[in-house]
Amino acid sequence: MTDSNLPQGRDSLTEDLQWRGLIQDSTGPDELRALLDGPSATFYVGFDPTAPSLHVGNLMQVVMARRLQLAGHRPLLLVGGATGQIGDPKESAERTLNPPEVIAGWVQRIRDQLSPFVTYAGDNAAQLVNNLEWTGQMSVVEFLRDVGKHFPVNKMLAREVVKARLESGISYTEFSYQLLQANDFFELHRRHGCHLQYGGSDQWGNITAGVDYVRRRGAGPVQAFTTPLVTKSDGTKFGKSETGAVWLDPEMTSPYAFYQFWLNADDRDVTRYLRFFSFRTREELEELEKATAERPQARSAQRALAEELTALVHGEREMAQAVAASQALFGRGALDELSPETLRAALAEAGLVGLDELPDVAGLLKESGLVPSMKEARRVIAEGGAYVNNTRVAEVDATVSRDDLLHGRYLVLRRGKRSFAGVELRG
């Protein structure tokens, strides 16, 4: 698998990753460089099924897998059917343990979700693996003798998240998570010739434990690195929108809402996000960075990021629909060309009100929350600031009929240039 967006002249893979800020820690810079810039190597990255879907917080690792495969390396995408039943320790409190049958369903959903990001054909074909395959077969005695024997407790206690939990309490279940993840690296090295693991910087303790464990078992050498945690410059958590987490599953976060999340990126963050997530060349990204600095109001970097990632996660068609909806809602495109799903998703983001019958336009403006009162609604209409389906309302007592409904059930209301809401006729 190759791609024209890979650095093929000016930068090696390692140099490109470093320029993008994608390598935070590594077990050995020289050894890692030799592995990344050398012939095809097998690497792995893990995803625990703690929810029915991955979210944008996982996107860094998903995109990195694609990036490394495009460079010629072979991905092992591990979905933790075993580790997902235990849970990596959190700093605050114990995780809620989900039933095994629920986790099994999430494993399959996440496996399906990872499929579009890599290719399963060719010399460096990706492979999906589940650590329940080897962990589930081990007895308690085997686990303690073969795995636990190689882990000094003092090193396990030194892990930051463990130290943070010692006073409030941490169960042996979560304390032992590190052993399970370390054993994954050993098993993947033994079974598939895996020589490289990466993950988020919060996983550094688990990852280095795996590198050390492979060595203690007389295997290796193996290497590892971490990517930085993605943050927002305003202090809010990355991966959250006003309506909650931004999921990769289109049923949990619509492609339109996904597109809007990236489109609304802060100017202070967007160039960093482009380096992290985009497959554009260094020259293209530097041009976008320059354009953002010179004309931030044009939001060219945000549009480029939103379009590329929406197409990557949801496909070109959904990306085109999200772009069309973003334009049409503000009067720069045809509303009737949007699919019912895209239109509803867009209106839901803005505020969608369900009604059993249609009042006059003034009543619609009030019911939708665009104005606080009927008096204000009539004033907005009289001043020419009210729109229904992007058509200016000329009469204060104007009404709408079922023939005006988009897809037989929706109306798009707008006040002025930028405030809009939706109405859905129930029944």
UniProtKB/TrEMBL annotation:
Compartment annotation: Cytoplasm
InterPro entries recorded: aa-tRNA-synth_I_CS (IPR001412), aa-tRNA-synth_Ic (IPR002305), Rossmann-like_a/b/a_fold (IPR014729), S4_RNA-bd_sf (IPR036986), SYY-like_C (IPR054608), Tyr-tRNA-ligase (IPR002307), Tyr-tRNA-ligase_bac-type (IPR024088), Tyr-tRNA-ligase_bac_1 (IPR024107)
Sites where the protein binds ATP: 240
Boundaries of every Tyrosine--tRNA ligase SYY-like C-terminal domain copy: 362-421
One Pfam family in the UniProt entry: SYY_C-terminal
The keyword DNA repair is annotated on this UniProt entry: no
A GO CC term assigned to this protein in UniProt: cytosol
UniProt short sequence motif 'KMSKS' region, positions renumbered to this chain: 237-241
Record motif 'HIGH' region, residues: 49-58
Keywords: Aminoacyl-tRNA synthetase, ATP-binding, Cytoplasm, Ligase, Nucleotide-binding, Protein biosynthesis, RNA-binding
E.C. designation(s): 6.1.1.1
Taxonomy, superkingdom: Bacteria
GO biological process terms on file: tyrosyl-tRNA aminoacylation
Binding site for L-tyrosine: 44, 177, 181
EC category: ligase
Catalytic activity: tRNA(Tyr) + L-tyrosine + ATP = L-tyrosyl-tRNA(Tyr) + AMP + diphosphate + H(+)
Molecular function per GO: ATP binding; RNA binding; tyrosine-tRNA ligase activity
UniProt similarity note: Belongs to the class-I aminoacyl-tRNA synthetase family. TyrS type 1 subfamily.
Function description: Catalyzes the attachment of tyrosine to tRNA(Tyr) in a two-step reaction: tyrosine is first activated by ATP to form Tyr-AMP and then transferred to the acceptor end of tRNA(Tyr).
Official protein name in the record: Tyrosine--tRNA ligase
